Amino acid sequence: MEIRPQLDDQSGTPIYRQLYESIRSSIRDGSLATGDRLPPTRELAGSLGLNRTTVSAAYELLEQEGLIKGHVGRGSFVAGGTISFATSRPLDELFPIDEFRATAREVLADPNLTNILQLGSPHGYAPLRDYLGGESVLVTSGCQQALDLIQRVLAPAGSSVLVEDPTYPGLKNIFERAGVRLLPRGEAQAPLAVVTPNFQNPTGHTMSLRERQDLLRTAQDREMTIVEIDIYSALRYRGDALPSLAELDPEANVIQVGSFSKIAFPGLRIGWVKARREVIARLAEAKQMVDLHSDQLSQAILVKFAESGKLETHRRRVVENGRLQLTAVLESLEREMPTGTRFTRPDGGMNLWVTLPEPMDAAALLPEAQRAGVNYLPSRFFEIARRQPGSFRLSFGGLTPERIAQGVALLGKVFRAEIPAAQPGLAMAMV
Amino acid sequence: MEIRPQLDDQSGTPIYRQLYESIRSSIRDGSLATGDRLPPTRELAGSLGLNRTTVSAAYELLEQEGLIKGHVGRGSFVAGGTISFATSRPLDELFPIDEFRATAREVLADPNLTNILQLGSPHGYAPLRDYLGGESVLVTSGCQQALDLIQRVLAPAGSSVLVEDPTYPGLKNIFERAGVRLLPRGEAQAPLAVVTPNFQNPTGHTMSLRERQDLLRTAQDREMTIVEIDIYSALRYRGDALPSLAELDPEANVIQVGSFSKIAFPGLRIGWVKARREVIARLAEAKQMVDLHSDQLSQAILVKFAESGKLETHRRRVVENGRLQLTAVLESLEREMPTGTRFTRPDGGMNLWVTLPEPMDAAALLPEAQRAGVNYLPSRFFEIARRQPGSFRLSFGGLTPERIAQGVALLGKVFRAEIPAAQPGLAMAMV
Q: Does the model's pTM come out above 0.95?
């Protein structure tokens, strides 16, 4: 297949961007179909008289959007159809782009803009910090950096930390690379525990009030510090909200980690930590060492977005839609998975945990699922002590209910094909 | 003195911001003068019927702007007059704010905005990465994060790294905290060296062509990797540019660190690393662990700002002004410092190194300088092996030539007062 874009040297738009837009249109209008191979960058550069890096940049943009997919040694292919359950992120089709634009324009018009663009404080942009809780707050570059700073300050190499098993890969990687020993909560003791009480990643599990109280009591008895990852709690689709650990016991050693990124705009890297002032001071010192401070333009936009009420309006929309996403994913799992499959039934968030019947291996089946146009993360990315080869995380936050149903149907087909013996049982279960 | 702001509940502007603006006006119009004490937050909150955190937020904003200064246990004072030579940063009065606004508005109007606001790649936003050099580039959250990632990947705890002595505190802190042994370059061997060939921070020193070639030869002989901090080279005010280490030997193990922040907008935390692809791959893995990726809105704005030529136009203006800043700082040091003072004479950048005559101690004199309204960073922040109690860094990048001259005059007065014996000598030298 040939790519013959109209490229205009005189246009203000860089050539790679023009090339990107041209290929994107071809994918959208169907003249490039799923599975079509794009010409190698070198070849296309030659035929269009362009520099190879120009073509690479266009391909990279397409890949970043999920429109094409590169395979080492085989080239790049149109991937328009892949339904990815692999990333815990919000649905960008819901992003309130017009409201974001309006808020960003207000910030640009702010006479204080020069200060926003000058070097800032490691603690964060003061108006945002104040909005979040003042001196007990440190603004971070997303929840991920909050975990990095907490590791640096509170969990030196050689120390032990209690975590949920399975746990969030970003937590596992950062602590294990630093030489910290991660232990499954409930089976060991350690001076620090990291938990996600609401809609845990990857299982979607929510701790009951009793579990929260028990954990706080244990923490008090053992002088344990608790890191409470609280990034999903605003996304409850059913049932009643439970108080956070920090709310249940304001005197406990709780370090709360939050973020805007699960509601909207994860491309703006803004999260935060709430803790006692002396903990914040130590984290801020580490923050200054790792990157001086977080981006101030995004902080200024996000605080205005939140203060104006636009964030809350958007959150309600996300929750309404999340209810539909959750229904879609639960109903289609019920309908499509092979008999004997188990899965968690979260009340919010964007992740759940599927366990296929033995002896099925979710990692081994992944290439087949990808060929069918679906992606997910198998258990090994999340495991601490217990191996769960039949399990995988299904992240439904980034997909519409329709795409969720399509994707689960494709997955079900792949999995059922693996165990023909189970098919009749499934058929019966589905009657 | 009383603070009686007009606060409006119904206004869209938060109360703390109204309070901040009101106090700021009072400082600007002189009704609050340098040295005036602000009421304690609790007291002002009481008298205005506000929450104490509201008042704290206003004070924090004022402090962030350098308009007031808090002293533990003594309260907050109007600091309008302090001339700070303590931070290596660009002059914000030169920031091309209108051009920035125009570029940011273009990005906001981009149909691709949704993708900019969605989760991105740890390597960086593709158009910026392409602009900077494609696959050999990793976008980081400023130069500081580049150093953190390099430490994590290439300088494990217990290893040795060669650096300049004195060196940049952000480098010293991040490597020493990680348990890396820093050694002065030239006196030892190590697998990694970190250098700033142009306008080094803090000395302003530039390596000659011969020094660069010698270093590259040593690196080759000893299989040493060189980290080349290249954040000031675009700010040459006199003399001819020299090729960078990376340019001199494209085959050498050079990892180049760059940033936009010394030219403009350090509040947007965007820097980069250029290195061999296999090094970039390892750094990108670390980048994903520490904060997933850098802020994409700022990346999108900065690449458009650069591609449009606005960055280069602004850089020329900064260089023209830098020439005036450099002249001002050198001439006033010559004129104002006590006899026997030595200082470096850089050809660019924003820092130079002053050494007072013995037995003067720059750290011991700092409180006196601060009382006189001037700030600087004494030698101990920069020292590796050699103690230089008489020395301090003078950062002139963030001040107008007029403020530089005023500040150096104030410093000279403080220092000369310390050595009455030197006064006549000085007076004679000044004839």
A: no
